[in-house]
Amino acid sequence: MNNHTSRYSFLTRxxxxxxxxxxAEVTNAIRNAIVTLALPPGSMIDKSLICAExxxxxxxVSEALARLQIEGLxxxxxxxGSTVSLVKLADVREYMLIRKGLESEALRVLxxxxxxxxxxxxxxxxxxxxEAAERxxxxxxxxxxxxxxxxxxxxxxxxxxxTIIDSARANLDRARRLIITPRRLALTIAExxxxxxxxxxxxxxxxxxxxxxxxxxxxxxxxxxxxxxxDLFADGATLGTDSDFFPFG
Length: 249
Description:
CATH topology of the largest domain: Four Helix Bundle (Hemerythrin (Met), subunit A)
Low-confidence stretches: 1-5
Shape: globular
Radius of gyration: 20 Å
Order of helices and strands: HEHHEEHHHHHHH
Distance between the termini: 52 Å
Largest sheet: 3 strands, antiparallel
């Protein structure tokens, strides 16, 4: 690989591109790079270099960027090119409010109707969270964190709830990765344990309070980070110091 394409060496080139799937594969590769912050907020996107790195023509790359624009991950300006969208705190705030309402009510539905397999799965998940945190493996921890919540949805077969939350996951995951630190990993484990304790106690109010507190804590940290790094956020410069901006509801 030459020096020109090495700039995008983090992109995953599909092993085989089937006709009709090229655009989807390219979209997934670029989306993953944005969500994992390999392509950070505000960075320019060079379509020619991406084409060279992935071994595709310009058409699927252009189509992929158009799809990611709809998802809110890419900004496309005529005659000026494409950039990775800055994180929009207002959007993240709304997404997290939706999550807080849906997940707290989902837990109320779950408690009293769950079986031993759910308890075993959550217990094992928290154990693997601790192992990843001990290794300081932030990326693996993030995937296990997502799985913790998915275990709950799957146990109730709440496919529509999961679909609603998944539709906002790319933007949420990108924002959450900005604040991944050893401290946040430890706090997340404690917050997940509190949710698990509520399920074990079959206490709907305890579990609902725990999930709401977990989401609020993440948002409070994200807003604090945004105040220190406003250049990564579309609305970071307008963020005040009002501590009540989040949590709410």
